[in-house]
Amino acid sequence: ARGGYGAIRLLNHIDYNLIKNNQKVFCGFSDVTALLLMIYKKTGMITYHGPMACSDFGCENGYDFSLEYFEKAISRQNLEFEGNKIYTKGSAEGIIWGGNLATVVSLCGLDFIPDEDFIFFAEDLNEPVYKIDRMFTQLFNIEKFRANCKGVVLGDFLYVDNQDWLDELFHEFSIPAVGGFKITHNQEKVTIPVGARAVLSGMKLVVNKNKLVVM
């Protein structure tokens, strides 16, 4: 129904085979990122980073925008998203994968990183610059993450005043990185099918509907 904290405590108590054999739409953001990524990893089932029942569909502001993108995602239409800032130029292809940055980092120590190439998307809020830098660096210090991550898509990093450091950070990682996508804690948010095939080119991210199936 909403985010907060506690999803990570559920991970070792989930019957992933039951989920795989009784497929449902799992959608959410923030703390729910832990469930989305582990369900995808354990089952190969597409999950959805997007609005939640209480904190989004239960509110009037931004409802129409979020509902439009949610319906597009679950109806298996091809999805196109446009960013507004290129940090490092280039193109990338792989599954689209990620979520709330702090929650992704909290999974370190588990087998959670995709085995295939991926484009990493991330957002967060109320985190100081040095912590965001540290979290990205921690992930890219993992050999498998560094080898399989082919590009980065950034949503909002709310309440972070100075984001110029991102230019230096992603230049150091030497992979394409684009920001300005409506992946956010704000009311107006897009829905990203975690595990779907995607292509990042320039400031455009295209997600392919043909991968919206169980592997």
Labels describing this entry:
215 residues, 8-stranded mixed beta sheet, 8 helices, single chain, alpha/beta, Glucose Oxidase, domain 1, 11 strands
Secondary-structure topology with pairs:
Blueprint: H1 16-21, E1 27-28, H2 33-43, E2 47-49, H3 53-57, H4 63-74, E3 79-82, E4 85-88, E5 91-100, H5 101-106, E6 118-125, H6 129-140, H7 143-148, E7 149-158, H8 165-173, E8 177-179, E9 192-194, E10 197-201, E11 204-207
Parallel strand pairs: 1-2, 5-6, 6-7, 7-8
Antiparallel strand pairs: 2-9, 3-11, 4-8, 5-10, 10-11
Would you summarize the structure shown here?
It contains eight helices and eleven strands. It is of the alpha/beta class and 215 residues long.
Please give the largest β-sheet: 8 strands, mixed
How would you name the CATH homologous superfamily?
A: LD-carboxypeptidase A C-terminal domain-like
> What is the count of distinct domains?
1
Low-confidence sequence ranges: none
Which class do the helix and strand fractions yield? alpha/beta
Radius of gyration: 16 Å
Helix-residue proportion:
25-40%
Q: Look at the structure and give the mean pLDDT.
A: 90
The level 1 CATH classification is Alpha Beta
